[in-house]
Amino acid sequence: MKRIGRIFLVLLVVLSLVACGGKEEKKVVYVGTNAEFPPFEYLEEGEIVGFDMDLINEISKDQGLEIQIQDMSFDGLLPALQTKKIDIVIAGMTATDERKKSVNFSESYYTASQVIIVKDSDTEISGFDSLKGKKVGVMLGFTGDVVVSEMEGVESKKYNAAYAAIMDLKNDKVDAVVLDSEPATNFVSGNAGIKVVEGEAEKEEYAIAVRKEDGELLDKLNSGLKNLKSSGKYEELIKKHF
What we know:
Blueprint: H1 2-19, E1 28-33, E2 36-37, E3 41-44, E4 47-49, H2 51-63, E5 66-71, H3 77-82, E6 88-89, H4 97-100, E7 103-105, E8 110-119, E9 135-139, H5 143-149, E10 155-159, H6 162-170, E11 176-180, H7 181-190, E12 194-196, E13 202-206, E14 209-211, H8 215-231, H9 233-241
Parallel strand pairs: 1-5, 1-6, 9-10, 9-11
Antiparallel strand pairs: 2-3, 3-4, 7-14, 8-11, 8-12, 8-13
Helix pairs in contact: 2-8, 2-9
């Protein structure tokens, strides 16, 4: 009787494997972003789209990963990564030495720079050196926030959304906005009465963040990124979004 029970149990296991195609179910990889940073990530008809989203989707296809995107505040991304609420961060994030102390970054996937946005009528601000004595809008936790906060004699006003900073600039609530170059160009093209100051800009490298212990996942991201570049798919995405 016991032997028959064991045989029946084995048959059940075999049948369940057949029903599932004998394949192990993929583990979902959770990707955190901040959809306030066009053209890298932004909301369009309720969907998170942009260059970063296309990039991580193509990498996931190349590497056989099943991903799920989660939108959250930029300054909450790394804490969410470290507490395992998400597994990957891709959000136009600069791979700074300070951030590298707590997380690992992929190879760089984009080189950007910090620029200054002012009103068309502004003739005083010509570069970062002329921000002294001014009130400057920055994105909380972004490189511009760090750069402006370290400048003497400059008052910074921090925002969770770049669009709010642009509106305050247009309404004379701040004198300038410091933002990454591509989003800045995007906002200027869509808003009359503002311009990007042609001055020296600070360069930075965007990369994808993972936890220190997730070396296998990091290897997959780097391998996928390398494959996209060699296949020409990466260049297609660049042309599509920029």
